[in-house]
Amino acid sequence: MPKIDDFHAGFYRKQLDYKAFIPEKINAVWSWSDRELNRLVENAAIAIGRLDAYSHQVPNIDHFIRMYVIKEATLSSKIEGTHTNMEEAVLRETDIHPERRNDWVEVNNYIDALNGSINRLNDLPLSSRLLKEAHQILLRGVRGEHKLPGEFRRSQNWIGGSSLLSAVFIPPNWEEVDPLIGDMENFLHNEETGLTNLIKIAIAHYQFETIHPFLDGNGRIGRLMITLYLVEKGIIQKPVLYLSDFFEKNRDLYYQNLTQVRTQNDLLRWVKFFLIGIIETCESSTQTLKSILELKKECEEQRIYTLGKKVNTAKLLLYFLFQQPIIDAEMVSSQTNISLVSSYKLLDDFVRLRILREMTGAKRNRLFIFDEYFTLFN
């Protein structure tokens, strides 16, 4: 019976002129004795319960979830070196500067992979098959598209350094990937591990990143797996909990704590770090939802009410802005069923009311941004 407090992470196996790390399998009955871990588990469960309960009180919560997904995509991709921000991510590809389009595509692939995987949970459990499908979408038409999208690797990879000889970490050889991922998959669906769901996904995330089953995109798929597990288990009813923001803000600790499991067998430190991330992210997400509702109410009751006969149309535009916070006149016309001329007038009203800001400085093809909304997510 493995103990979180006294964990043996694995061993190194000689492979020609390098050593690959072979992690211990994790599908077993676990135990722990650390009291601080008990407290964190309890506080994390309370924090998730509060966030989930509050999300049920928010009218049209699905309108706001799109922005949570966009934020997760931009931050998870940022950890891997992609530099598209949230404002760019909601633009159309044709509105993106050609030099930044590759990053834009990577982020939007992540959005498609996350949304598609959440929908797939309706008929497919969290599994290697589901992760492979997400991986195929993730690498669609971007750098890495030739690195076996949708398939586990069939060659050795490494982390850090320019080659195997200078690598910071070398995952297990490719022949070990299938049995190790199979063990992790069984672990995720084993109800007899003695672990809470939050500890289970913390361990599974570490294991996935250690196995590094793909040639590219492991970090993003590993973080996506966290949300999929929470949704599948019903821990959150709506996908409003994403840890990439916490991991990005604590990037050095994130990698350090993962590494210390392998080098010092310190799984306990990693699990505690993960649970602290759950707590802080839940508190932040709850506050963001509260701030969104306050902003919506303030815009409705103190700004657009001054527009007289336009109020009903203005409300339609305001509600649309919470789904699509960068717009042009054609979008306004389509969503509100008014003419282009009237759309421009309504946009001018929203600029005057400090709801929108014209962001291009151009006379044609103007775009307008809902700055205050973005600020709540940043």
Q: Would you kindly provide a brief summary of this structure?
A:
This protein has 378 residues and is mainly alpha-helical. The protein has helices at residues 35-57, 61-79, 86-89, 101-120, 128-138, 177-189, 197-211, 218-232, 244-249, 251-264, 267-302, 311-321, 329-336, 340-352, 371-377, and strands at residues 10-15, 18-23, 326-327, 357-358, 368-369.
Describe the structure.
This protein has 15 helices and five strands. It is mainly alpha-helical. The protein folds into two domains: 10-288, Orthogonal Bundle (Fic-like fold); 304-377, Arc Repressor Mutant, subunit A. The strands form two sheets. A three-stranded antiparallel sheet has the order 3-5-4. It has a two-stranded antiparallel ribbon with strand order 1-2. A hairpin with a 2-residue loop joins strand 1 and strand 2. The two termini are 43 Å apart.
The largest pleated sheet is described as: 3 strands, antiparallel
The domain count comes to: 2
Q: Give helix % range.
A: 55-70%
Tally of individual helices = 15
Task: Please identify, by name, the CATH architecture of the largest domain.
Answer: Orthogonal Bundle
Overall mean confidence score, pLDDT: 93
Helix and strand content put the structural class at: mainly alpha
Strand content: under 5%
For the largest sheet, list the strands in their spatial order.
Answer: 3-5-4
Number of strands: 5
Order of helices and strands: EEHHHHHHHHHHHHEHHEEH
Going by CATH, the homologous superfamily of the largest domain would be: Fido-like domain
Task: Briefly note the CATH topology name of the largest domain.
Answer: Fic-like fold
Unreliable runs, pLDDT <50, ≥5 residues?
none
